[in-house]
Amino acid sequence: MNHQTWKLHWAKKCAFAISLTSLTTLLAIGSSTADFPKNAVVEAQTKQLSPTRITSEEISQVKQALPRQNILFKHAFRVNLPDFGSCIFVPVQEFLKGSRKAKLSLYLVKNKRVAYTFPQSQNLQAWNFLGLKAVSFIELDFDGPDEDGILLIGNYMTSNFSPYRSYPSKTPPPFPVTILYHREKNGFKVDENISKKLTERKVKTITEAENILRKDFGFLP
Fold it and tell me: What is the pTM assigned to this prediction?
């Protein structure tokens, strides 16, 4: 097993373990395909996005649009967006060339092609992405035209992936990072300020993040 193959295998194991810890914090929707466990979950408040689990056929379409990528299918959903119509929200763990580090990349896939690439959060450039804990499609403001938001909680660490099969005992532990996207015309933008504040509070669940958004920022109804 070469270094790149082992690194991808190790990251997938981390992502799987992280995903299991988040299942109790979200609401189940839709039916699952044979590729997913029946309790695969997402929380959906907004009616506009209408997230649903993707089918086996849609999984094939995503693979065609994003070949040779570590696609996080457990957090991929079909959504309905005003500027894009019906499309597939796809998170990817992308390994940086020439580096033992990964980042979270987000895409909208439509008709077997990437229709939109989400902007990267500037707060995350120095950290190494391990995996997603949860994704929530939320309604930030009932009265505004750009009311749809996407809330993500991922696990990161400050050190790079180890070239060996185990990490030194003094390696800093992983920590949760929260990212809030706000829909604007023809795309999304990262709310860097609120994302940073949620991360500083070490938010670990969607419910915890929503309580802060509601009480401290007045975003949620």
Answer: 0.74
